[in-house]
Amino acid sequence: MDLKANFPEILLDLFKKYKIDELKNLEFTKKGVVCFADISGFTPLSEALMQIGAEGSEILNKILNFYYGKIIEIVKKHNGDVLSFAGDALNIYFEKEENATNSSVEIQNFFKEKEKIETPIGSFPISIKIGIAKGCLKFYILMEEGFINPVFEGEPINKAAEAEHHSKAGEIVIFKDNSFFKIKEKTKNVDFVEKNSKLKEIDNNILLDFLHPFFKDAFLKNQTKYLNEHRKCVIIFINLWGGKLREIYKNTAMILKKYNGYFLKVDCGDKGDKFLILFGAPFQLENPLHSSYDFLLEFKELQK
Hints:
Blueprint: H1 9-17, E1 27-40, H2 42-49, H3 54-77, E2 81-86, E3 89-94, H4 97-113, E4 116-119, E5 122-125, E6 127-144, E7 147-154, H5 155-165, E8 172-176, E9 179-183, H6 196-199, H7 204-208, H8 213-220, E10 234-240, H9 245-258, E11 262-269, E12 272-279, H10 288-302
Parallel strand pairs: 6-8
Antiparallel strand pairs: 1-3, 1-6, 2-3, 4-5, 6-7, 8-9, 10-12, 11-12
């Protein structure tokens, strides 16, 4: 398994220059353009397929791989970099505005061609909305108790999300000159430059240090079957306001470790900071619901 495919290039560049301990308290900035692409249709599809158990899970996995795989293919073609996934949405970074708009138009065209998903239990519509904004991206890595979560935030993240809110299904909206504009076609042609050669400079052994110990151990032992397991889990979504993200993350990580929970994602955007926490995977628990209750009670006391 090539671990480089699981990291944004913007982080891989950091891993060439810094050791893991050096990154803990550092913050970085980079000017560019961010696309926020939000897919509609996966939620009802997922709920329906889960009713048929493991078979539905396998079908869903193939569908997700097909659509997200095509998005990533188009993004890479236009020299983009997928920063993060947030639910059914993606944050994508580009150095040039032309690449961002051209990539977005191509993604929309693909979804219009594949606007219906056929499954053994029926047909499901799917569409995508895209917002684009330019500015200074801030990024850093949170690390506590074995948990490691990259964070991307700043004006282009927030404004791209706001632009997406102004769009409808099948539309692209860009925030520019303090106004929102719809984009209907590609801009001027740009040169496509392959960047994949950069990734060969990073060895998997270096990237292993950036994985949670559970995943690192599974990778070293070539035990990756858990990736396809069908098990009951509990997901907790926490919305944070008022700043102090690093402090709250540190305290939350201590409680999570105690109850064998997992920091699935840390997300920053126009609606505040968010934690996505998982119980039942990758750590298998006898009763993930009880563990999640205990975690929440202790987390609530911590916020008083």
